[in-house]
Write a structure and sequence with these properties.
The structure is a single chain. The chain contains 15 helices and eleven strands. The strands form two sheets. Strands 1-2-6-3-5-4 form a six-stranded mixed beta sheet, sandwiched between helices. The C terminus is likely disordered.
Length: 424
């Protein structure tokens, strides 16, 4: 399914479908990912969600959402490749299912416009109490990353591997820059967002009219977002980074690079390749590292298609480090040298296609897949994407596997092992 797109100052994409009983309006607002702005934008998202001039408290917002027949409203931030994305989402029942005729779409988009364009601020400053409360919450979230060792290990791998790239920046920013923000500085961030962010609006549902002028008409004229200098380069040799902490289970993560990204004709083949490598329970990493040899508590891989990265995550005992690293390398080497069986190929393609279909079972999923394609520079209609996966051959997998090169190895292990001999 492809949306009908209105190319105005702010593109509006309509997925007109009878698949859902609700209507979703989603604003995807993106800016270059930067260590200087990430904390401010993360805080801005939370402060905008907390109140506006007309709805100055959570109770006012809840009361309004209840009036909209239990509509939902959320704002969050994340990163997609080298961009920082702030997402505003409204979802509400389709008005044709209401007992009385009401223009719920207009009311819901007016509420969204209020939350974006009339924030709880005066004299170019946000409400200081809300700013401080949300700063504390975000600082707790940033500190929590350190306590959740899987997330921490993944963050550290990305920081080391992509140290010269925008992608190394965490979407919540860092604690130091978060602490330096106040209600005036945050308003500067808001004004920059209003003028500079590239914005796409998605409308998903069984709607004939999709007038979102209340939201989009209040943004000033957009200019093209400048491309982000990637800075990506493969090191002359593999980087090895080791840290110790008060933990029992070691976290071994390997970062690989591939030249295949989402805009590449071999994108679907690369998805299948990652599925065979570590994406599913039948994959080589899960079967060989965890199930057959019992070398890891978990072993999986993830393909970051916007950047052309393949990340391997394992939980292991420290003494198994060399063996696990070697077995992971053997599994990739097998994919690079031996054609996979038709049975495994078909199983992997089937699971990938199921994932895509499940994603499109939600309004937000339809919009997210289109947005990712747009950011990558190539939007694939869902059926075209599925056809490309179905056509992937064993030779395609060989070619994609041979594009994968090890870049960085990160190992986090327990402090009690520091005196033991290490071969890292």
């Amino acid at each position: 399914m492809q949306p009908v797109t209105t190319n105005t100052n702010i593109p509006v994409h309509l997925f007109q479908t009878k698949q859902f009983k609700t209507t979703a309006v989603i604003m995807q607002c993106r800016a270059p990912l930067s260590e200087h702005t990430a904390a401010g934008r993360a805080l801005l998202a939370r402060v905008l969600k907390k109140g506006s001039l007309r709805y100055p408290s959570q109770s006012h917002i809840k009361e309004k959402l209840d009036d909209l027949y239990g509509a939902t409203f959320s704002v969050d931030v994340g990163k997609r490749g080298n961009y920082h994305v702030m997402s505003f989402r409204m979802e509400f029942v389709n008005e044709q299912y209401l007992p009385a005729q009401e223009d719920l779409f207009a009311e819901a988009t007016a509420f969204l416009a209020e939350m974006v364009h009339a924030p709880l601020a005066e004299n170019r400053a946000f409400n200081p109490k809300i700013v401080e409360e949300e700063k504390r919450t975000l600082l707790q979230k940033i500190n929590t990353i350190y306590d959740e060792k899987d997330r921490y290990a993944n963050m550290r791998l990305v920081q080391e591997m992509c140290s010269a790239e925008a992608y190394s920046v965490h979407p919540l920013g860092d604690a130091h820059r978060m602490e330096a923000l106040d209600e005036q500085k945050l308003y500067d961030v808001y004004e920059q967002f209003l003028v500079e962010d590239a914005i796409d609006v998605y409308v998903v549902g069984d709607v004939e009219s999709y007038d979102v002028e209340a939201v989009t008409g209040q943004f000033p004229e957009r200019s093209s977002l400048p491309p982000v200098e990637d800075g990506a380069e493969r090191p002359p040799r593999v980087r090895y980074v080791e840290e110790s902490d008060d933990i029992h289970q070691g976290k071994l993560q390997l970062g690989y690079r591939t030249t295949v990204t989402q805009d590449d004709p071999q994108f679907a083949a690369m998805q299948v390749t990652n599925g065979l490598f570590g994406g599913f329970p039948h994959s080589k990493l899960f079967q060989e590292v965890r199930e057959k040899r019992s070398l890891a508590y978990y072993a999986a891989s993830r393909y970051e298609s916007q950047k052309g990265l393949v990340m391997v995550m394992t939980g292991i005992e420290k003494e198994q480090y060399e063996q696990v690293k070697a077995v992971i390398g053997e599994q990739l080497q097998a994919l690079q040298q031996e054609p996979v069986s038709e049975e495994l190929l078909a199983q992997t393609k089937g699971m990938l296609i199921n994932q895509i279909r499940e994603t499109t079972d939600a309004p937000g999923g339809l919009a997210a897949l289109h947005f990712q394609g747009k950011m990558a520079g190539r939007v694939r209609p869902i059926e075209t994407w599925i056809e490309e996966i179905e056509q992937v051959s064993a030779d395609d997998v060989l070619a994609c596997a041979n594009s994968i090169v090890l870049d960085t190895v990160f190992f986090l292990h327990g402090k009690e092992d520091e005196d033991a001999e290490t071969t890292v």
